[in-house]
Each structure stands twice: as structure tokens, then as C-alpha cells.
Write a structure and sequence with these properties.
mainly alpha, elongated
């Protein structure tokens, strides 16, 4: 049993619209820096960059340490910073996915209004 809306959605999805290409990965990343919450992306990027620099610095200290206890201290700090930096970077992925879903909904709405 198909309703009128289901039929129109199926027709809209069957048609191809080349005027609205799918944005690439890097374009989606850059789109996070704009809009009402773009400032938060800048803050997240700055914190993540600081943690990455800290990871490399602690890693260097780990490899140049001559005793076991300082090496353990620097090594664990480097690993903790690396995990936190990666987690912060991955926190932006759901936002990118939500933006893709919103874009798909806008395309579907555009198809349905035609």
C-alpha cells in the first residue's frame, strides 16, 4: 500500500540531479568552520593542534630519557595526549554526517517541490 507521499519520494529519488553535486570530504571539513558554531570548530582545532604538538614533544622526551621512571612518565603522557587528540578530532565526524543528512533532506525537498 503506497501513499501519495511515498510515490513522490520514489519519483524524486529515481531522478538524477547533476546541478547539486555531492561535496567532497575536504569541502565538508572546511564547511565545519562556517556557520553559527564555526567558532567552536576553531577552538577544537586549536586544542587538538596543541595536544598533537604536546604528543610529539613528550614522545621526544620519552626517547631521549636515560632512566626508566622519566621514560615511563613521558611515554604515558605522550600516549594519553595522542588518544585525547584523536578523540577530539573524531568528535567532529558526527557533525559532518549530520550535515550530509541535512543536505540530502534539502535535495529531497527540492525534488518534491518541483
Amino acid at each position: 500500500m503506497t501513499t501519495e507521499l511515498d510515490r513522490r519520494i520514489a519519483e524524486a529519488l529515481a531522478g538524477q540531479d547533476d546541478t547539486l553535486p555531492e561535496p567532497g570530504y575536504f569541502k565538508m571539513i572546511m564547511s565545519l568552520f562556517y556557520g553559527p558554531q564555526g567558532w567552536m570548530t576553531y577552538v577544537i582545532a586549536a586544542v587538538q593542534l596543541g595536544m598533537t604538538i604536546g604528543t610529539f614533544w613528550c614522545g621526544w622526551q620519552f626517547y631521549t630519557a636515560e632512566a626508566v621512571l622519566p621514560a615511563l612518565k613521558w611515554g604515558l603522557t605522550a600516549v594519553a595526549l595522542a588518544i585525547m587528540a584523536l578523540q577530539i578530532k573524531l568528535a567532529l565526524m558526527p557533525v559532518m554526517q549530520a550535515n550530509r543528512v541535512l543536505l540530502a533532506l534539502r535535495r529531497l525537498e527540492l525534488h518534491l517541490t518541483r
